[in-house]
Amino acid sequence: MDKLSDYAKGLAKTSLEGAISYSDKIKGLNLDPYTLTDADLDFEVEAIPPISNMDIVIYLVLTNSYYTEKQMKAYKSLTPYKYFEAGFVEKVGVKQVNGYMLLVGKVQPPVQHSMHGREPELHVWIITERDGGICTAHCTCMTKLGEVCNHIAAVLYAVEHVTNLKNSTSCITDIKSTWPVPFQSGLQPVPIRLMDWGPKKSPSIKVDVKPMTNDEMCSLLRKIQDCGYESALMRIVEPFASEIANSSKKTNNLQ
């Protein structure tokens, strides 16, 4: 393997057993998925492998015993499905490698307490067969050697959702060509001094307007005057201020 990610190098320093397990997972690809960038991935809906609910059951229940069969029958009440519904799964990219389908995505961990800032994104990759069969997976949240966590399961549910959309439409153009899954980007922590504590306002468009020159101001006021109207500005802008003052004097003298 030509290149290892910083994550894989860190495993080698902290857990030899973990590093060996990770190496075994990716040996069929002959590359470390965490070295890939967005430019290496295909985010089109058509690229998503056809992962079905049965594929997920086989992987989560029969292969890893992560859930019981009874739990999976009510999978929509499970934490991973709630992660998916809440939009914590970001768009998933796909790459074909050595006959396998590699899915790479990110999951926003939910804030556990209102006083806590948003934690860093968790990076998930999943290796599948072309027909949707799930081979193995990994997430940066893992502290043990298991192959399943809530974040991996959430990504699987999101991909299953895309598969169902593709199967339920007569034409692929009937759905978005890019990730048609609920998604929230998450709030990043910012210093208190940068927070806006004022009332919410509707978005407004700010336009830079150059201040009027004296000649432009006089021209505008003259047009107002010609229409038979007055402006408060005329009392402080010359020559209108002098004209008003002289007019007032004449009126007083007549009285």
Automatic annotation (TrEMBL):
Keywords: Metal-binding, Zinc, Zinc-finger. The keyword Nuclease does not apply. GO terms for molecular function: zinc ion binding. InterPro entries: Znf_SWIM. The keyword Metal-binding applies. Residues 124-160 form the SWIM-type domain. This is SWIM-type domain-containing protein. It comes from Psylliodes chrysocephalus. The lineage of its organism: Eukaryota, Metazoa, Ecdysozoa, Arthropoda, Hexapoda.
